[in-house]
Design brief:
The complex is a heterotrimer of chains A (about 90), B (about 550) and C (about 220). Chain A is built from three helices and no strands. Chain A has about 90 residues and is an all-alpha fold. Chain C has helices at about 15-50, 50-60, 65-90, 95-125, 150-185, 190-220, and strands at about 145, 145-150. Classes of the chains: A mainly alpha (about 90), B mainly alpha (about 550), C mainly alpha (about 220). Chain B: Its main location: membrane.
């Protein structure tokens, strides 16, 4: 990471925030919610790749980051498997 | 061959100060950052809690000696088994092998001078102690009557017992677990000696590493769940109150997401210990090292997707139940592979029946019984009848006491010469090991029969026809107690009067046995260079 | 005078190993934090699916413009933190101090605005803490399933306060860490060490940022 990439990352983050806020004007709820979450995911990815140096990090650190997401997904999905099929 | 490299000009015959001789002041113990001393701090603490939890168990078994609930009221009985569960699970079993044997041996087995974060290691013990204090406060305040499982909405809205104090105690001790896990993971990844590749690590290291991963991934979910209980009881803001649209089952999902992997935290290190002992005392390399490693990692992984098997009759969806049941059958497979591999290791071995080996062989019987009965419980149709009966109680005690505690005792006896530089009486150790084996079977086997016959768990009275089985079970507890008290006596005795041990009294393989007994402060004078795999027995 | 060469701590063989261990240690810690908040988000996900209509309407009662500003502030603090790291990496004392101060200022401003938000919610009687009066006006029919709408809305606000409260606590800890780093940077005793520690602190700060993005999305954006 250098100054340039940090600043570009920040601009990208603000742009994604703006996009997510603008999407609030959409009528279709499913589309609106999808945009919100995609923007959130993209912002998170930008922060992790640039500000948290994952772009230049070794495989182990990336694995740790991915595991976190995987484990939350596990918790939510399997719990939903119960909630949604009652 | 493993070479311990000495720097040029150094007198290789001069013995460096061992870690015990460097002072016995309070300061040198309470402010130590030496992983070996921290292991002892933990050992003392968990032993105290073990006897505390055992006292509760003794009272339970005394009450159950007679069919009528005559020793204690139902209320008091609720608090007693809750105390027993909380203390035994969080203050004994979870830390036991990792925080004592793991802390002592992991750095040595990978060839390091200490853990990656020695100060965090000490902090984890202080946090453990703080959590312990809160739990004692909870006991003094009358205890908790929710069971160790804290089910909502009873625990959040209706219980008049010391739920908050107990929840805070467990909340705090969780951080101790997390720090230990973090230290193990980082140490194993970054501090292995040159030549110590992943494929050359002893299975004890693999087991503790997998355990550490579980600690790190599962414990925080318990932390936030207990936080939610605490917030609901103090500030009145919660998400489990049905009147607000909250879901009590949500609590159970969050709770068991941690508490099922937690049982693998308890058993995996035990399996690691068994591997070390079985290899040494049959003079054979462990059969199927790769399979053992894969099984360890598979147990850790699959352990995260089976939690719903605690909730088959809770109102959980049938389809989720089927899914969890299937995965539970699956998680039994790697455990079975390990048990078969240990047995195969014995084949054509030169077996000696020293105390550690008796413990390890006991583990094989006890874990097999406990594990198989787990498979019965995994079947939905059977679980409908067996859930909340003594069958379940027997199942998990066979594994936790018959498995984890037995292995802990075995490990203690195996590495005692290394930890202390002393040998203990072979005769007494054999007696204690056999007492444990007999006591465990006598205590818990009748409970399978009781559960199958329909006796519910957590009840302090029962119909007369169950009497004989209950009496047998309580008698077993007496024998079991012998198995715990004897080592306390002869091991302590050995500290002063035991014959001095050399570096390797069992002629075992492994880096830890290459050092003097007790080891010097930083384990190795120079970082060892590893040139061969583990278990190079012939 | 700042020392030039760092010697590794006694348990490490060289600085490379120590650096590696330090970064891995922080990442593993962040993994635990992910699961901590993850449990909360799991709770939110389940309850949101069970009570979609009420939760969506309740979302409208929160102050989105203020939260959006807060989000922008936090994202900017991520930039200033990154710049502080770069400055420390280049061994520039003044720049490091400047960017650290900016990060602390932005973080403090975030907490201030959050506190103001909570206060305004308290004034509008939307804080169901400690049996404070909770008055929720709704345009939905009175009962959603088995519970009255106001009760389910209370559930939403419970989650909201727990999530933002837990996040604010982490922010406070983060500010404490940054204040300590500010002091060390002011002394500038061991620049090598400051560089390493700032990098590790930066990971924590950025992570808190990521958590906020999801809290913001879940609680403020999913409107009816």
């Amino acid at each position: 990471m250098n100054c340039r990439s940090a600043v570009f990352c920040w601009l990208g983050l603000l742009a994604l925030l703006a996009l997510s806020l603008l999407a609030g004007a959409l009528d279709n709820t499913a589309l609106r919610y999808s945009v919100h979450f995609i923007c959130a995911g993209a912002m998170a990815a930008l922060i992790m790749l640039v500000f948290m140096h994952l772009y230049t990090a070794d495989r182990l650190l990336r694995l740790v980051a991915v595991s976190g997401l995987l484990w939350i997904a596990l918790l939510i999905l399997l719990t939903l498997a119960d909630m949604l099929t009652r | 061959m493993t070479r311990v490299v000495y720097s040029e000009g150094e007198d290789r015959h001069a013995t460096p100060a061992d870690y015990l001789s460097g002072g016995w002041s309070i300061r040198s113990w309470l402010l130590t950052v030496d992983h070996k001393r921290i292991a002892w701090l933990y050992a003392v603490s968990i032993t105290l809690f073990f006897f505390f939890g055992s006292a509760a168990a003794l009272l339970i078994r005394l009450e159950l000696l007679t069919p009528a609930g005559d020793l204690l009221s139902a209320e008091s009985y609720n608090r007693l088994f809750s105390l027993h569960g909380i203390v035994m699970v969080w203050f004994f079993l979870i830390p036991s092998i990792p925080a004592t044997l793991g802390n002592f041996l992991l750095p040595m087995m990978v060839g390091a001078r200490d853990m990656a974060f020695p100060k965090l290691n000490l902090l984890s013990w202080y946090i453990y102690t703080l959590g312990g204090i809160f739990t004692i406060v909870a006991v003094i305040a009358g205890g908790v009557d929710t069971g160790w499982t804290f089910y909502t909405p009873y625990s959040t809205l209706f219980s008049n017992s010391a739920v908050l104090a107990a929840a805070v105690g467990v909340f705090i001790v969780g951080f101790s677990s997390i720090l230990t896990g973090l230290n193990f993971v980082v140490t194993t990844h970054t501090m292995r000696a040159p030549g110590m590749t992943w494929g050359r690590l002893p299975l004890f290291v693999w087991a503790n590493y997998a355990t550490a991963l579980i600690m790190v991934l599962a414990t925080p979910v318990l932390t936030v769940t207990l936080l939610l209980i605490g917030l609901e009881r103090t500030l009145g803001i919660g998400i489990f109150d049905p009147a607000l649209g909250g879901d009590p089952l949500l609590f159970q999902h969050l709770f068991w997401f941690y508490s099922h992997p937690a049982v693998y935290i308890m058993i995996l290190p035990a399996m690691g210990v068994v591997s070390e002992i079985v290899a040494c005392f049959s003079r054979n390399p462990i059969f199927g090292y790769t399979g053992m490693v894969l099984s360890i990692m598979a147990i850790a992984l699959f352990g995260f997707i089976v939690w719903g098997h605690h909730m088959f009759v809770s109102g959980q969806s049938l389809y989720a139940g089927i899914l969890f049941s299937f995965f539970t059958f699956l998680v039994a497979v790697p455990s079975a592979i390990k048990t078969l591999n240990w047995t195969a290791t014995l084949f054509r071995g030169r077996i000696s029946f020293d105390a550690p080996m008796i413990y390890a062989l006991s583990f094989l019987e006890l874990f097999t019984v406990g594990g198989l009965t787990g498979v019965f419980l995994a079947a939905l149709a059977l679980d409908v009848h067996l859930h909340d009966t003594y069958f379940v109680t027997a199942h998990f005690h066979y594994i936790m006491v018959g498995g984890a505690v037995t292995a802990y005792m075995g490990g203690l006896h195996f590495w005692w010469p290394k930890l202390t530089g002393r040998l203990y009486s072979r005769a007494w150790a054999t007696t204690a090991a056999l007492a444990l084996l007999i006591g465990l079977n006598l205590t818990f086997y009748p409970q399978f029969l009781l559960g199958y016959a329909g006796m519910p768990r957590r009840y302090h009275s029962y119909p007369d026809e169950f009497s004989i089985l209950q009496v047998l079970s309580t008698l077993g507890t007496g024998v079991l107690a012998l198995g715990y008290l004897l080592p306390l006596i002869y091991l302590s005795w050995s500290l002063r009067r035991g014959e001095k041990a050399g570096p390797n009294p069992w002629d075992a393989k492994g880096l830890e046995w290459q050092t003097p007994s007790p080891p010097p402060v930083h384990n190795f004078r120079e970082t060892p260079v590893v040139e061969e795999g583990p278990y190079a027995y012939q | 005078m700042p020392t030039n060469k760092s010697r590794p701590a006694v348990q490490f063989d060289d600085m490379d190993q120590q650096r590696h261990a330090g970064l891995l240690g922080m990442w593993v810690f962040l993994l635990t934090e992910t699961l901590l908040f993850g449990g909360l988000f799991a709770g939110f996900a389940i309850l949101r699916l069970q009570h979609g209509a009420v939760f969506a309407e309740a979302t409208g009662h929160l102050n989105l413009p203020l939260a959006a500003i807060n989000t922008a502030l936090l994202l900017t603090s991520g930039l200033t933190m990154a710049l502080a790291e770069l400055a420390a990496g280049a061994r520039l004392r003044r720049a490091t101090l400047r960017w650290l101060l900016a990060t602390i200022a932005l973080g403090t401003l975030f907490l201030g605005i959050k506190g103001f938000e909570w206060y305004s919610e308290f004034q509008r009687q939307l804080v169901p803490v400690l049996n404070l009066p909770f008055h929720y006006s709704s345009e939905l029919p009175a009962a959603s399933g088995e519970q009255p709408v106001a009760a389910v809305a209370e559930l939403f606000f419970n989650l909201y306060f727990i999530a933002t409260g837990l996040h604010a606590l982490h922010m406070l800890v983060g500010l404490g860490i940054l204040a300590a780093m500010l002091w060390l940077a002011h002394r500038w005793r061991r620049p090598d060490r400051i560089d390493r520690q700032l990098r590790i602190a930066g990971l924590y700060w950025a992570f808190i940022d990521v958590v906020w993005i999801f809290i913001f999305t879940c609680f403020y954006l999913l409107r009816a």
